[in-house]
Each structure stands twice: as C-alpha cells, then as structure tokens.
Design goal:
This protein has 114 residues and is of the alpha/beta class. Helix content is 22%, strand content 18%. It is built from two helices and five strands. It has helices at 54-59, 63-81; strands spanning 5-10, 23-25, 31-33, 42-47, 88-90. A five-stranded mixed beta sheet has the order 3-2-4-1-5, covered by helices on one side.
Length: 114
C-alpha cells in the first residue's frame, strides 16, 4: 500500500472505540497492533492517555518510554512502507490534545532513534 504518513491520536479521543487506530502505544512502551490497517491513506497511532490537560499529560508514569516506543514504531513502519517518518499529523484540533508532547516525539530518520 502507498501511505501518505501518520495520524496521531490519544485515547481520550471520542473516535477511539477499539477500531479507530492501527497501533496502540501504552505508557511504558508496549505496542499493540490492530488486526487490519483502517485507512488507505494514513497509519493511525494512538497513545494511551489524555493529552488535553497539562496535568494529565505530564503526570503519566512511563510517558518517556511511550514516546520512545511511538518514535521507534514510526521509523519501523516508515521503512517498511517506504514513507517519510516526518509526515506526522494530529487527528483533529482536539486530538491528540493541546498538551501532546510533539517536541518529545523525537524522530531521527537519518540515524535512527536514540
């Protein structure tokens, strides 16, 4: 398949109902794959948690591991499907939330993840 990029969600999103994502990333870094990809254009990745409130986004234990796992997943999928790992878009204005740590989701396509 020819994908355009990635869409990021958080589990607080109202469209996440068990089938609105392709990959689920838990705090702590465990990744779960849906049985089928849901969108012919984008790969949807959902991070467990609520990034719509500063306190909720910052307080989650394992957040660093979760973001590392998400970055690693993006790089692996980008290589597998031959798409840029830098095309990462929010699902909507409110998802993945105002306080989603975009700057902590570090992607280094030239030399892998750190």
């Amino acid at each position: 398949m020819l994908y355009k990029g990635f869409i990021m969600h958080h589990s607080h999103c109202s469209s996440i109902n068990g089938k609105g994502f392709d990959f689920w990333v838990e705090p702590g870094g465990q990744v779960y794959a849906a049985p089928m990809l849901t969108d012919p254009d984008y790969i949807h990745i959902c991070l467990e948690g609520d990034f719509s409130h500063r306190d909720a986004a910052a307080s989650e234990s394992g957040r660093k591991e979760q973001l590392f796992a998400a970055g690693k997943l993006i790089l692996e999928l980008a290589a597998r499907f031959e798409i840029s790992p830098l095309i990462i878009e929010p699902h909507s204005i409110s998802c993945p939330g105002t306080f989603f740590p975009w700057n902590d989701l570090v992607i280094y396509p030239s030399d892998g993840y750190h």
